[in-house]
Amino acid sequence: MEKSIETIWKEGFLESDALVAPKLNDLYKQKSKHIIDKFKRMFRINLNALFIGSFVILIASSVVGIPVMGIGYFFILNTILLVNRRLMKDLFKIDKNVNSYQYLKSFDNWMKEQLAVNRKLARYYYPLFFLFMVLGFWFSQDIQETFKGILERPNQIYLINNIPVLWTIPIVIITGLLAYFGDRIYNFDVSLIYGQVFRKLDELIADIEELRA
C-alpha cells in the first residue's frame, strides 16, 4: 500500500538523513541551536557575574565596615559558582549531532537536573545570606554605636556576645521562612532571568512532539 501524505511528512521530519522535508528539519535544528546557545551565553554571563560580584561585595563590605557580611557572601557566592560550573560541564557534553528533538530533550533533562540542584541549595544559601547580613551589621562598630541606647536598655535579657533575646525572635522567624520558601524564591529569580528562554524551549518541544504524534 502506498504511503499517505501524512506518513511521508512525518518520516521526512523524523529521519535526519531524509530528503522529503529537509527544510523543516533544518528549521527546527536552527531553532534548537539558537535557544540552547542563548541559554549557554546567559548562563556563562551569570556565572561570571557571581564571581565578580563576590569580590565587589567583599571589598565594599570591608570599606563600609561590615567585613563579616562580605566574607560570608564571598564564600556562599563562590560555592554556588563551583556547583554550577560542574553542572555546566555536563551541558557542553550534550551531543549536537543528534536530531533536533533528541538535542532538545537532552538539554531539557540537563536543565531540570540543574534547577533541582539549585533549588536544594537555595534553601540553605538564602537563609545564610540573611544571617551573614545580620552578623555583619551586628559586629559593625558604627552600627553598635548608633543603636547603643537600644542595645543597653535596662532589664534586657542577653544571649551570647550581648545579643538581646528579643532581637533573636524575628531573626529566627525570617531565617526559617527563607529556608522554607528558598526553592520558591529561587524559581522566581530564575523565571525573571530565563523565563523567556524556558517558554520558547517548551513551545518548540511541544511543536515537535505534536508532529511526532
Question: What would your notes on this structure say?
Answer:
It is a single chain. The radius of gyration is 25 Å and the shape is elongated. It has 213 residues and is mainly alpha-helical. It has 7 helices and no strands. The two termini are 21 Å apart. It has one domain. Helix 2 (22-63) packs antiparallel against helix 3 (67-91) and helix 3 (67-91) packs antiparallel against helix 4. Helix content is 82%, strand content 0%. The longest helix has 48 residues, at 165-212.
Low-confidence stretches: 16-20
Estimated share of beta-strand residues: under 5%
Number of domains: 1
Characterize the largest beta sheet: strand count, sense, and whether it forms a barrel: none
Average residue pLDDT = 80
Number of strands: 0
Query: Rough shape?
Result: elongated
What is the CA–CA distance across the termini? 21 Å
Helix content: over 70%
Secondary-structure element sequence?
Answer: HHHHHHH
Structural class: mainly alpha
What gyration radius follows from the Cα positions, in whole Å? Answer: 25 Å
Number of helices: 7
Please give a quick description of this structure.
The protein is mainly alpha-helical and 213 residues long.
Keywords, separated by commas or semicolons:
213 residues, transmembrane helix, membrane, mainly alpha, 7 helices, 0% strand
Topology:
Layout: H1 5-14, H2 22-63, H3 67-91, H4 100-138, H5 141-146, H6 148-151, H7 165-212
